[in-house]
Design brief:
The structure is a homodimer of 449-residue chains.
Chain A: E1 2-9, H1 13-25, E2 31-34, H2 47-51, H3 66-71, E3 75-78, E4 82-87, E5 92-96, E6 101-111, E7 115-117, E8 130-131, H4 136-149, E9 153-157, H5 161-172, E10 176-180, H6 192-204, E11 207-210, E12 215-221, E13 224-229, E14 232-236, E15 238-241, E16 245-247, E17 278-280, E18 287-288, E19 295-296, H7 301-315, E20 330-334, E21 337-343, H8 346-351, E22 356-364, E23 375-383, E24 389-396, H9 400-413, H10 417-421, H11 437-443
Parallel strand pairs in A: 1-2, 1-6, 2-3, 6-17, 8-15, 9-10, 9-15, 10-11
Antiparallel strand pairs in A: 4-5, 5-6, 7-16, 12-13, 13-14, 18-19, 20-21, 21-24, 22-23, 23-24
Helix pairs in contact in A: 1-7
Chain lengths: 449, 449
């Protein structure tokens, strides 16, 4: 049985971060990475832009060449190699290669198997013209279809971040685009005012939106597909289902590995699981919410990279490394709009028994008299009792999203609104009004007496 | 003797902020504002862009119309009215109007007289073709000269923020531009790498830079001016002197008002001076540096507005209002470059006995594969002993400056580099690499063992 001192399951963001960092800080251990697909170390978040042809060559999404890992970093990479079983007691894994089955033993293990698309149990959802967008294979398959067939009409099921990004991609290719959302609202993570802004932007870009759409059946017809929902029928050439994802951890069931009910591996700030010498990282894991202290499932690329880095360093013997958790920051570009959120929504806060107060403002991105200023919406949410900032949102152009990062820093640090409202943000006319939108919003929350 | 419950000396940023906020929270008091110049409530920071014709009409710089203050807000405004003396004991001020001298009594006083340009004692510096840029009158005078005479060549004395902005203005008008700086470096507030970037950008835009230039004499000639420095001579059509500013507080000397040696009024977080019922705000004041806890002279528009707001609210009886101080954030646009700084430089830290460590990185503004990514330079400085972030800089495009605001928030909150390096900044390919430049810089400062 071949042995790796460090064995990593999964070779995308989290897995390759772990491999690279482990090697960087430890030249002596043997490292092996097993990846189910053809590709390693790719920028999955770039796929909507690959599909829209903003990025023409998929190779640009590959962060590091595979051969470089092998030759320069002395990391062994096995692609098309699926780990089907882990024996935590014996410390080995079973691997299905393209044409063989093998076992490999390990000293330290990093599980970074990512997530897979949720497919709702609807008749016809398994049609091959219902695409999902999760792995680079998925992205390339969609791209190939769009280039070969040049379809005229597409339906996106799901109005979350990926659905919104895909709407932009399809419109860039001049494809008639419909978003079909089961809930009464799209972009449900955001507050009403931001959702309204997103809807306006979609409509401005000729995207149709159908909410409250409960799909009964999807049927392949001679020249495309038919979707039945609420008794209505839509014809379309193809469908992209972006309903959500769930952890790729089915093969780990009943192994004693600590997971949530939905199969997310629970890890701590060292990326350690409950099993000694077993780490996990990325979209197959939970992450600590720094505000509520809950371990939540919030799979995002930047978190994957952080968890992967810590897993790799810890596994390589760097015990000092810690990733304490997230505050829930999310950015999404919707056509020309920057949309961003951090912290808790008012609803989430209420669910955690937190009393909130909030303020919303529209301000310009630059001084009023400076040309080409854009409108920025800012929402700030505070804990009414201890006055700390716990959430915020932005929508607009010209730096709207980066402003939410300033809120994220304040939330991470536990800053109160009184200090934030007079914070020393930089000012010059090309960058903001003298009271930046963030300060203007915060000022509205001050109690003056 | 006419009486005002609240009397304000100075009607620009700080003074009008004080007046507006006092009125907003107190409808019953009488408020009078005395302004030496023709104009009130203008955006002084916009003047370089007025001169460059990016803003064509100076009226756009006037934040609120004078008549609106008088009629809608019931604030009495006296322009061309210079306060020449304050009698703190008797609680009255002497005012030189255009054609009369009057005295006015007050209950509460806000001093917001701003600053004036420093004119070094060099022969010929008092020539009328040596312009300074401080008040709107100054700006309009330069603009009028440039439009009437259409000069071909200008010299800017001083390579600080205003000098850099004015270089951009003059080049926009296709005027041959030279920056003459006494020190060996321009943009001395910034670190070496940023200064290099600024210099490159100036040269790319055909601005000549002469450093170490010790001016001996300025002489008016038949067709322009001659500057003698270090034994050399430069011919020029006009000169803009932007060497620095000092508080407009000469008329307050020997009154018992607590000021620094250089005449900056020392105030606390309520904008109170050492004299009861006397507040001060803006460029005539000190501000608390939150890192060093020193009261420093750092006159900036955004600080003026904050101090003015607090002075007005406090004077109107809102005792809860506090502006605790600044961390030294400064933004300046230099042609197409965003330049930003916050916190202490390594030199300033050393002067305060703080051991530092620092990291510098260049990263892209967007994901590597996303089109039109720009280069961003980030520097982060930490206190080596307690690991808190104490300073940082940025240079670049596409959101470089806003990233320094994230550092400013971290500094204000006392965040340590370990938490910052794994902070949950938003990510999507159009907004940043998966490890944003800030995180990449911070990661370099982590101690791994």
């Amino acid at each position: 049985m071949k042995h790796f001192d460090l064995l990593i399951i999964g070779g995308v963001a989290a897995g390759m971060s772990a491999a690279s960092q482990a090697r960087r800080y430890n030249e002596n251990i043997s490292i092996g990475v097993f990846e189910k697909s053809d590709f390693i170390s790719y920028g999955a978040c770039g796929m909507p832009y690959l599909i829209s042809n903003l990025i023409t060559d998929y190779k640009k999404l590959l962060a590091v060449d595979k051969n470089k890992y092998i030759n320069e970093r002395n990391i062994q990479i096995f692609t098309n190699s699926e780990v089907t079983e882990v024996n935590f007691k014996e410390k080995n894994v079973s691997v299905k290669h393209a044409d063989s089955l093998e076992k490999y033993s390990y000293d330290k293990l990093v599980i970074a198997t990512g997530a897979k698309a949720v497919i709702p149990p609807i008749k016809g959802m398994d049609s091959e013209k219902v695409y999902t967008l999760r792995n680079l294979d998925d992205g390339l398959e969609i791209k190939k279809y769009l280039e070969l067939v040049k379809p005229e009409k597409g339906v996106i099921i799901g109005g979350g971040a990926i659905g919104l990004e895909m709407a932009e991609s399809l419109r860039a290719l001049d494809i008639e685009t419909i978003i079909l959302e089961k809930m009464d609202i799209i972009a449900a993570a955001f507050s009403e005012e931001v959702r309204k802004t997103i809807t306006d932007e979609l409509i401005r870009n000729n995207v149709s939106i159908i909410t409250g759409a409960d799909i009964q059946e999807i049927a392949e017809k001679e020249n495309g597909m038919q979707i039945q929902y609420n008794g209505h029928i839509i014809d379309t050439d193809f469908i992209i289902a972006s309903i959500g994802v769930r952890p790729n951890t089915d093969f780990l069931k009943n192994t004693g590995l600590n997971m949530t009910g939905r199969g997310a591996i629970i890890i701590n700030e060292k990326s350690e699981t409950n099993i000694e010498n077993v780490y996990a990282a990325g979209d197959c894991c939970t992450v600590r919410n720094l505000i509520t202290k809950d371990d939540v499932y919030m799979p995002l690329g930047t978190t994957s990279n952080k968890q992967g880095r810590v897993a790799g360093l810890q596994a390589a013997g760097i015990n000092s490394e810690r990733f304490k958790g997230v505050v829930g920051t999310q950015f999404v570009k919707v056509f020309d709009l920057e949309i961003a959120k951090t912290g808790l929504s008012e609803k989430e806060a209420a669910e955690h028994g937190i009393n909130t107060d909030s303020a919303e403002v529209y301000r310009r991105s630059k001084a009023g008299y400076y040309p080409n200023a854009e409108k920025i919406f800012i929402k700030i949410i505070i804990n009414k009792d201890d006055r700390t900032i716990i959430g915020g949102e932005a929508a607009g152009k010209d730096g709207a999203a980066q402003r939410v990062n300033i809120l994220a820093a304040a939330i991470t640090a536990g800053m109160n609104i009184e200090d934030f409202a007079y914070m020393d943000l930089g000012y010059a006319p090309p960058f903001s009004p003298v009271w930046d939108s963030l300060l203007a919003g915060a000022q509205k929350l001050l109690i003056r007496n």
